[in-house]
Amino acid sequence: MDYKTIYTTQAEAYEAMIAAEDYLGNLLPALEEIRPFPNQKVVEFGAGTGRLTCLLAPLVSHIDACDSAAPMLSVAERKLRTGGWQNWQLHVADNTKLPLPDHSADIAIEGWSFAHAAGWFPDSWQMQINKMIGEMQRLLKPGGTFILLETLGTGFETPRPPAPHLAELYTWWTETYQLNHTWIRTDYQFASPQEGAELTRFFFGDALADRILADQMTILPECTGIWWQTV
């Protein structure tokens, strides 16, 4: 899948798909077990259409949400304004260089963003990830925490990296940065198998969409990994 093109041309389709994700609400409790979010200053990398941004905005004192795809942030802005929150700012920025001052955040978080480096930079992904995590460390106050959220398989009930390059990446950053690690289920719920196939085909491909139809699935299992470190 050409995810760069998806993020710049299909933001609304992406938002419609993720609106069905984590229907049991497992993500926020898992994050709060790592670190309480109330009254914290947060910087978000790869914010996309604001899934995490809108989840955290009601809790935090301020959130700076950044993404390199302006169309994705346009959807995030609409959602944030609809929610009535005022404690946020959006920035079009690459994950390796955010327009924010040193030591300005209590928490740095990314969701389903950094791991793209393993596919987009097959010969230099370690250098790219080092820059991204280094940028998180630059922005954090002493005692701050950075959190990484990435896929451990859509369509699976138990965690497994969906591609060899992701397995290599997860092992590498866990060992290199001595990260803590856990995983949760973030299953999708659809009104019908037809809706599920329609919402997911453009992003996950024909094989998964056809499986949803063949198995008449309205619940699509998904596993999400969480890695973190307090600096």
Provide a descriptive summary of the structure in words.
- This protein is α/β, with parallel strands linked by helices and 231 residues long.
- The protein has a single domain, classed as Rossmann fold.
- It contains 10 helices and 9 strands.
- The strands form 2 sheets. It has a 7-stranded mixed β-sheet with strand order 3-2-1-4-5-9-6. Strands 7-8 form a two-stranded antiparallel ribbon.
- β1, α4 and β2 form a beta-alpha-beta unit.
- The longest helix is centred in the middle third of the chain and has 15 residues.
- The termini are far apart.
- The model has no long low-confidence stretch (mean pLDDT 98).
Oligomeric state as shown = single chain
In DSSP terms, counting alpha (H) and pi (I) runs of 4 or more, how many helices? 10
Helix and strand pattern: HHHEHEHEEHHEHEEHHEE
Number of domains: 1
Unreliable stretches, pLDDT < 50, 5 or more residues?
none
Biggest sheet overview: 7 strands, mixed
